[in-house]
Design a protein that fits this description.
alpha+beta; homodimer; five-stranded antiparallel sheet; 16 helices
Chain lengths: ~450, ~450
């Protein structure tokens, strides 16, 4: 079987770049969730056209070979890691921005386009593509759609879903369909676009996306607020919401993360239990006015220090701490980054739950994330090769998932269920909702060849 | 069969309000798309709890009786009109706002809550529920979710979909599931919430919705701009977009509509080929600055007159024309309101297409709608009982659907496919995409009892 599909692919698509040497396939073994058990794909296809993707999937269906779609491999849920006996379809070579349509505020892009490249291309037209996962400089649009990726902008501009107007999708039998389109309002038929977004390649392979753009906002006004207690930072977030503010950034870092960033990058941030990064991109004087109000809210919550940028370079400096958080922790050992969320008002309870599992199990963990969305990234680290510590982290994560669910939250705010959190999907969604998901999966992919064992 | 389900309902749900007298059922025959052929439902159930809805659907499945879910009956696609031999489930009595959660900027509402009642209730907390279909004073949240309703706010605040965080849904076998929740970021499993939104009750019955709120924006700054040519109004819309403005209202009325409003309500608007209503709700001085820029754009496009409100009462006066558009045309005879859309940049071409089908067939039609979204409501009228005129309107609408599709547009921007536009779904979406919709429908409703023959 193995050989027959490889031969069939070579026969039907002689120009397809197809990696079969072990050394080449090795790079496609896992995504960034390196703590997960990995599998080596049988082959890696690097198509350049939708027609090639369609032919690959058709042959895979014929040969009953699983397909793993893969963007830039920066995912944090294991969804684009290899499957033994499977073909990984990597979209690296489908990386063209096909169109920037300024009049309709949209862009058309292939799935392999790097998020930052799209941002840069539309910026030259005075436009803005909001979704900004922390990995935006290296992650792909297709991967962002697969996970419904978030980022720092979500508190004001929403998640990837909110910036997708339409898709071209290769279905499990190789059929190519288009969903949505260029209309900002369109209610003809079921919302297939939305069903495919976040499905991690289990319902179809996205080969093109029509993306919604916005006019570029003005430069951001930027503020850092430091707190002596984590609760006070949580209180500040609540006060900012209660004051009717909608900052374009509302991010948190805890003490461990602040120290890690200071140690790794010599930033000289004051030692504090938590900091909030707060930004406004309202036009004109409204930005400073919004920050004034946010600053008052932070003060009311007991901020011990506040630093406000007076120019773009200072603002960039203030932002740097948050941007370097993950990299600083990664310097400390093997890491596992989690993605729990809770309703905004439960932010402090979620932070407490993280603190509890960390201290009870004697673990190392820095927490940072999207305070304004209630979505946090507790990031554990341990000495590489310390199997005992890794096992304790695994147990801590499972406890954390339960804690998030108990708070009415989620086991994953923006990274995806993938493989990593699959055992907890039913606990969060309930068996009947998961049954519906499986009914949809079976209807669209009856042979179960599209990324089997992931997402649902 | 007919009697047996009625008896079963009465036996199992003795407290259920169940209308079986013809005179009572008559009111549930059609929705606001009164030009469609209507059918009288066998019975009308008015449940008060999710458990009752579940039991009704379970019995309907057992007896193979179709179910039509119905909100306030203000739909414009025929989706909530009766089915002979079917049971209409009207959500009129499930009309409670269950919770307003200010800290999490959300509300929990039953489907029968009137949109305006929700708006008013959250406004007392300083909050804002954006979706504002023209019928907002009489339409229900459940109906809004069924059609993914739009309105005037969409150009800035999006459609109903953008304000829904989670749903409680009764499935085709009576099972109750919950989708989404209270988290603004949550990617656990497939986006079932989004699949149900806009599915016009064909996949499940929504019995509760968790809705996203925003801080109440400041009062709007309001401008009317008048144009001697329709093209110039279209040009103004393009210039406003190109200038990077995001007004919270960007509405158009054509000459026929302006005259109808003047005649019916003595508004003394200047006679013009088109007007644009432009509003800004940015904070502080930014609102007037945005209107200044919009006004310059309108002038650059050749506006012949502009009127700007200097206070809230004047603003309300300027808004009135647009608000009265449909009512003014309805005074002229029998009406049929359409809902075509096109990519924003094709607005003028869409207006031209409307003009062409109207004049070629010698029809009466006033066009108004959401210029900023490319979504227009050409509204035909004819003398009641004039079957010939009605037939010409039908033919005109079909031609218009084709023209919208040719422009890359949609046959329905916010009203839904329902029954009215069913023959055109495949033309717009393509047979393969529609096949996927039917696969999903079959997977979730294998007996085809949920609003059969509607939406897809």
């Amino acid at each position: 079987m193995t050989q027959s599909i490889i031969e069939a692919l070579r026969a039907e698509l002689p120009n397809l770049r197809l990696l079969t040497d072990e050394i080449d396939r090795e790079s496609y073994r896992s995504d960034e969730a390196s703590y997960l058990k990995s599998q080596l794909p049988m082959a890696v296809a690097l198509p350049e056209t939708t027609a090639e993707v369609s032919a690959i999937v058709r042959l895979a269906a014929k040969h009953r070979v699983p397909i793993v779609p893969r963007g830039a491999g920066t995912g944090l849920s294991g969804a684009s890691g290899g499957l033994e006996g499977g073909i990984t379809v990597a979209f690296t070579r489908m990386n063209r921005i096909l169109e920037i349509d300024k009049a309709n505020l949209l862009a058309v892009a292939q799935p392999g386009v790097i998020n930052a490249d799209l941002k840069a291309a539309v910026a030259t037209e005075g436009l803005f593509y909001p979704p900004d996962p922390a990995s935006f400089e290296i992650c792909s649009i297709g991967g962002n759609i697969g996970t419904n990726a978030g980022g720092l902008c979500c508190v004001k501009y929403g998640v990837t879903r909110d910036s997708v107007l339409g898709l071209e999708v290769v279905l499990a039998d190789g059929t190519v369909i288009r969903t949505g389109g260029r209309n900002v309002k369109d209610v003809a038929g079921y919302a297939l676009t939305h069903l495919f977004i976040g499905s991690q390649g289990t319902l179809g392979l996205v080969t093109e996306a029509t993306l919604r753009l916005r006019p570029a906002p003005p430069p951001k006004a930027t503020l850092l607020a430091f707190f002596a207690q984590t609760d006070a930072a949580g209180d500040a977030v609540e006060r900012i919401t209660a004051a009717g503010l909608v900052p374009c950034t509302l991010e948190l870092m805890d003490r461990v993360t602040i120290r890690a960033v200071n140690d790794a990058f010599h930033l000289d941030l004051p030692d504090a239990a938590a900091l909030l990064l707060i930004e406004s991109d309202l036009p004109g004087a409204a930005a400073e006015a919004e920050l004034d109000a946010a600053s008052s809210a932070a003060e009311g919550a007991g901020a011990v220090e506040q630093v406000r940028a007076t120019n773009a370079m200072e603002a960039d400096g203030l932002r740097q701490a948050r941007r370097l958080a993950l990299r600083a922790i990664e310097k400390l050992g093997a890491t596992r980054m989690e993605d729990v969320g809770a309703p905004r008002s439960k932010l402090v309870e979620l932070l407490d739950a993280i603190q509890r599992v960390v201290s009870e199990r004697g673990l190392n963990c820095g927490t940072f994330g999207h305070a304004g969305d209630g979505n946090l990234h507790p990031t554990f680290w341990w000495e590489r090769g310390d199997a005992d510590a890794e096992a304790r982290v695994t147990a801590a994560c499972e406890e954390l998932y339960r804690a998030a669910i108990d708070l009415g939250g989620t086991v994953t705010g923006e990274h995806g269920i993938g493989v990593a959190r699959l055992p907890f999907l039913e606990l969060q969604r309930g068996p009947d909702a998961v049954r519906v998901m499986h009914q949809i999966k079976a209807a669209l992919d009856p042979l179960n060849i599209l990324n089997p064992g992931r997402a649902i």
